[in-house]
Amino acid sequence: MDQHAHHRAARSHGTVETEHGATRARPGPAEQPARLAALADRVPATVSLPIITALAFGCFTIFRAHSGGIKGGQAVLYGLAAAVVTGALGLVVAHFQSSMLTETRALAYGALFGCAVGWNYSLGGESVLSSVGFGLGLGAAMFVTALYIFRGHRVREPHGEHRPHKEHRSRHLPVPTH
Questions:
Q1: What percentage of the chain carries pLDDT values higher than 90?
Q2: Shortest CA distance to 82 belongs to which of 53, 46, 43?
Q3: How many C-beta neighbours within 10 Å does residue 24 have?
């Protein structure tokens, strides 16, 4: 064996030479947060959160349908339909939420949650009346929770404060004279 062939063979053991078409190694742990941050910058929360929630709801629907006696592919179809419908409606609500008043936005989230959970409750074989009651109860709870969260974070509200500050009120209301 000539000297160059031996040197080439010794060099190639355990290493990957990129000039021969090898792909880059997996990113190290130091590069992972930068890649995740770049991905988060590309996909806004108004898109990613409804999709993640819809996928979780679809999986829960499969579980609920299966535990209610629906087996196999039919349970998966229920889960797929639940994920698609709630995902689409969640994307619509998230897209238009910046143009809604706080109460309307909380009502939209409450209605979406209540209808989805009420329908899912009915998959277990419960009556229509109990499913409607369950959905209304949890929808009302979501409305109150969303309203509390939205009112608690008024700094990020698209329409600002609902009640003007005291200095703003003095400009609009007549000052009483004594």
A1: 47
A2: 53
A3: 7
15-35 per-position pLDDT tens digit: 555 555 555 556 566 666 777
Burial of 34-65, coded b for 16+ CB within 10 Å and e otherwise, reads: eeeeeeeeeeeeeeeebeebbeebbebbbebb
| Planar angle of CA 140, 143, 145, nearest 5 degrees | 110
Residue 56, helix vs strand vs coil: helix
User: How far is CA 137 from each of CA 26, 81, 89, 126, rounded to the nearest angstrom?
Assistant: 49, 23, 20, 15
Tokens coding 150: 């939205």
Encoding tokens for residue 71?
A: 């087996």
